């Protein structure tokens, strides 16, 4: 069986780590040669770390790779196991739904207020808009993973 994938999130996480590496390397070289550093690297690196974290978490969620204790699940007969899988999925949806909702509200407030980032003076919402987008993708991956587990398509590693 083909392993489920979250191609978009995997691409975003890969790009984020690549860009973090390149700007950090460039910053070190410039600091060594000139004694100064690029002003933008910290602000962009923090933003890209958030993209990397959510992207990687989404890939792990889709592939059923998040850490959890499956011993109870494996010990249960199918009907209670199904209920447990549904409960786990509902809890994941609740948490991700709250992150998506409040992330979208916070982004909208930043658009209304016209807040600028402290380092570069860019609109703050440019950075914040990724939070509800990526957590929304994680919501989708949670639904996919729960459905796959209910169908018996995703097994935990023993």
Proportion of helical residues = over 70%
Low-confidence runs of at least 5 consecutive residues:
none
Measured by DSSP, the beta-strand proportion falls in under 5%
Report how far apart the termini are: 18 Å
Order of helices and strands: HHHHHH
Average pLDDT: 91
Tally of DSSP β-strands: 0
- Radius of gyration equals 20 Å
Main β sheet profile: none
Keywords: Cell inner membrane, Cell membrane, Membrane, Transmembrane, Transmembrane helix, Transport
GO molecular function, one term: transmembrane transporter activity
Domain Tripartite ATP-independent periplasmic transporters DctQ component: 21-151
Main location: membrane
Report on the architecture of this protein:
- With 158 residues, this protein is an all-alpha fold.
- The protein has one domain.
- Helix content is 74%, strand content 0%.
- Helix 1 runs antiparallel to helix 2.
- It is elongated and about 65 Å long.
- The two termini are 18 Å apart.
- The mean pLDDT is 91.
